[in-house]
Amino acid sequence: MSFALAVVQPARCYQRMDGRPAVNCTQLPRRARRLLWPGIFFVVVGAVLILYASTMPVFTEAGAPNRVQDELRGELDEIYTQAQTAQIDDGRFDQLTQEWYARMDAYETPHKSLFDLGVGLLALGAGLVASFQFVRCYHQNERYRDVGFFLRIWFWLWAIQIPFSFLYFSVKILRNDSPGWSDSIAIPIFNGWVFTIVGWAVTRMILRRLLRRRVLVAPPQLNLRPQSLRAWGRTIFVSFWICLLALCVVGAVPEGDFGTVFPCMVAGVLLCLVLIAPEAVQMSEDGSENS
Questions:
Q1: How does 204-231 read in b/e, with b if 16+ C-beta sit within 10 Å?
Q2: Which of 10, 125, 272, 280 has the fewest C-beta atoms under 10 angstroms from its C-beta?
């Protein structure tokens, strides 16, 4: 969190003779470039890993998934036959699934781990570059500091998870990450879409509440000293939210979950701006003092 706050904090701000800020107060802080170069680095490394993984097969034997599944087909058919007269033995069914995974481990190459890590690093780099672009526009374009536009960006961060979740699970199906008798791709995709819709609606209401009586200004005012118990609660809540997003990124990068890494990276920067947004009353009082 300290890294993100260091990025969005203001650059040197000069005052004019009348006490009003000079034009370069809205220029992009040099610290924001800390997002750009690591982002480009991760994009390049991720692309290299993806290309390298594409040069090797997924399994040492091309027909290994089908062959292992055929070997277990007899016991699987027996389970389904018993299910016609009684309930399926979930314990036996799960044991058969675990046996399939254990056998497939002997045939897998580093393709999956390298490809997933490459996609994760690519998403991480793309998130850093997108965050740099947003911070740049935030400082130079007043439109990006409008609460309505801010919430529209938040909506799209949730919306892009829907197509990326479809691609994520489609890749896993195509490379036989699970046995043919396991749950279909429709179930996790549907659950993910429901979570996306509900998550967007809930977090949007929370975000509007957090921005109530707050002003998104450029340059941001880095002031993490709450003056009241309510302000302390707001600071702790948003800080915990940012840390939660960071944990999601750390867990999703090795899995190659682009739809989680990219939105969480950008959302973390947005929440940093929400965290340090000053109160509207405080801004008006400061303005009257300077005039």
A1: eeebeebbeebbbbbbbeeeeeeeeeee
A2: 280
Q: Give backbone dihedrals phi and psi of 21, rounded to 5 degrees, phi first.
A: -70, 145
Residue 111, SS3? helix
Closest CA to 127 of 274, 7, 21, 225: 7
Q: For the segment 137-187, what is each residue's pLDDT rounded down to a tens digit?
A: 888 888 888 889 989 999 999 999 999 998 998 898 888 888 877 666 778
Q: Is residue 269 within 8 Å of residue 127, measured between CB atoms?
A: no
Domain membership of residue 277 (yes or no) is: yes
Q: Supply 218's token pair.
A: 């450029």
Q: What does pTM read for this prediction?
A: 0.80
CA distances from residue 29 to 32, 39, 134, 136, 284 in whole angstroms, order as listed: 6, 17, 12, 8, 24
Is residue 98 a part of any domain in this protein? Answer: no
Tell me, yes or no, whether 134 lies in a domain.
yes
Residue range(s) defining the domain that contains residue 225? 2-58+109-290
